[in-house]
Amino acid sequence: MGTTAIISFILFTVLAATISYFKTRKTQRTTITGFFFANRTNGFIIIGASLFFSNISANQFIGENESVYINNMSVIGWGISSILAMIIVSEFFIPIYFKTGIRTIPDFLEKRYDKQTKTLVSVVFLFSYIINLLPSVLYGGAVAFSNLINLSGFHLSYWESIWIFVWVMGLIGSVYTILGGFKAITISDTVLSAGMLILIVALPYYGLRYLGNGDFFGGLSTVLSTKKEHLNSIGNNSDAVPFSTLFTGMLIVNLYYWGMEQYIIQQVLAAKSLEEGQKGIALTCFAKLLCPLLINIPGLIAVHLYPVLSNTNQVFPLLIKDVLPPVLTGLSACVLFGAAITTFNAGLNSSSTLFLLNLYKPFKEKQGQTLSDKSLLRTGRLFQIAVSLFAMVFAPFIIFSKHGFYEYLQKISAIFSLPIFTIIFLGFITKKMPPIAAKIGMIFFITCYVLSEWVFTIHLHYLHTLAIIFLITIALMLIISKMHPNQSPYTLVLDNKIEIIPWRSRHYYHAVLISLMALVFFIFSSYILA
User: Fold this and answer.
1) Rounded CA separation 482/475 (Å)
2) Are the CB atoms for 492 and 99 separated by under 8 Å?
């Protein structure tokens, strides 16, 4: 980046931090609810923006544009189909969470099964965040910045620059989370989402103008008339995301991610009411419809600008450097930086929440100790420091993953996510499922998936494999439940902390969102553009 771009990057970053500081300086951060849940005072705009931006990390900017460049638009299946999952979560999952008054997803498992199940799932969550989420977010951000800001002038290798950017992001993100708490994270997400909306319009516009040698419509004509195979979102078995997986493993993964992933669902649990939470999810759905303009369309433009790239994860940063004015290049760097840090912050905050409330506090209470909020928060901050240091040390080594970063991210996360989804899902729909079935189901699912991916050779897309293991695990758990049912059926006990009246107009908006979701797939298909 040039001098102007660097100055604008610094200014935009300082502006976001300043707004966040002034909006949160009077926020109560000396209690557990205040520090981890923003005192449950967030409205739908903050919820929608924080959900959206916590989901969007540098991994999507880099990985999805790279996938479009290499393959086609089938990768939009992850983002666009998540709209259906979010609607299901909004309608069925969120009301249960608010009615039971839970603070973490494992809290529900304690109410539905027992304390041991809660502890087991809390440990699985923590492993997922510490080993997968936090390091991969830092690594994805470092890859983006190493391609955007060239440090070769300082005689540094690519490997060394990855280390530097990982530690810069990790340290800044850690300080931000440890000092600011959850409210600071959600406010910064809101501010950065506004910058991202600018880029959603600006990058495709300038990219197509650059491709058309100053003529926007000339560039658009080139994208729509040549190499049309890249425009297809209806993937077959040889594509990155076969269309059939949208109805099997991907639906399950998306339902888990938007409805049970602690660092995502914690954004909604901070809502001031059920209505505000449901509105916030709908707002996130509308934002997801715009996402392809920034995390997929640049990959299409790059196909025509850079026919041969030796390092395909450079697609997004290279396009930014070549087509955007310096000020917008700085804004892009700010959004990329923010995307990496805010997802890291959200994961770090949720890791500490899980450890503190589900493991540390119950352990101390079992020993007969009563801990104040001040003492708990001190321990939580120390845990955040330890986890941050581990993530910063581990993250650079992801470069050695054999099959590429994006595939590493998806496959590793499935080890932890789908077993949790399975036992929670059955907890929702059954009344007599015993705790032992949940524990056996968790262990069985993890074992089968690890064997299918890293021991045996199975000629089937891993999302289909996940769906098959999901069904087998459900059958196993139902058999156990039939043989050893709970003597007394589970009943939901109201313990709501906020107003739980649903949003009256939600069904109209949901119908519009599902129609628009289907329209996106139809446009990027052989019937229209491809």
Assistant:
1) 10
2) yes
Cα Rg of the chain (Å, integer)? 23
DSSP bridge pairs for 242: 235
Beta-carbon count within 10 A of 430 CB: 19
| 3-state DSSP assignment of residue 271 | strand
pLDDT of residue 131: 85
Q: Specify burial of residue 429 (Cβ count, 10 A radius: 0-12, 13-18, 19+).
A: exposed
Q: Is 366 exposed, middle or buried (0-12, 13-18, 19+ CB in 10 A)?
A: exposed
Residue range 3-12, pLDDT digits in tens: 787 888 888 7
Classify 421 as helix, strand or coil.
helix
30 has which bridge partners? none
Instruction: Give the pLDDT band (50/70/90) at residue 219.
Output: very high
For 332, residues 6+ apart whose C-beta sits below 8 A from its C-beta are 148, 199, 203, 320, 324
Q: DSSP states of 255-319 as a string? A: HHHHHH-HHHHHHHHTBSBHHHHHHHHHHHHHHHHHTHHHHTHHHHHHHHH-S--SSGGGHHHHH
Q: What is the pLDDT of residue 74?
A: 92
Cα 168 from Cα 172, distance rounded (Å): 6
Q: How far apart are CA 183 and CA 155, in angstroms?
A: 40
> What CA–CA distance (Å, rounded) separates 481 from 479?
5
Using CB atoms within 10 Å of the CB of residue 7, give its burial: 0 to 12 exposed, 13 to 18 middle, 19+ buried: middle
The answer to which of 148-157, 274-283, 472-481 has the lowest mean pLDDT is 148-157
- What is the CB neighbour count within 10 angstroms for residue 369? 10
The answer to whether 28 touches 34, Cβ cutoff 8 Å, is: yes
Query: Rounded CA gap, 149 and 151, in Å?
Result: 6
All domains of the chain in start order, with CATH: 3-75+134-399+497-523 (1.20.1730.10)
Which pLDDT belongs to residue 37? 63
DSSP-assigned states of every residue in 335-392: HHHHHHHHHHHHHHHHHHHHIIIIIIHHHHHHTT----HHHHHHHHHHHHHHHHHHHH
Separation CA 499–CA 280 (nearest Å): 15
pLDDT of residue 403: 52
C-beta of residue 252 within 8 angstroms of C-beta of residue 76: no
User: Whole-angstrom Cα distance, residue 122 to residue 130?
Assistant: 12
Q: Are 144 and 58 in contact (CB under 8 A)?
A: yes
Q: What is the largest CA-CA distance in the chain?
A: 73
β partners of residue 273: 499
Per DSSP, what are the bridge partners of residue 42?
271
DSSP-derived secondary structure for 71-123? S-GGGHHHHHTHHHHHHHIIIIIHHHHHHHT-SSHHHHHHHHT-HHHHHHHHH
Reported as a pLDDT band with limits 50, 70 and 90, residue 23 is low
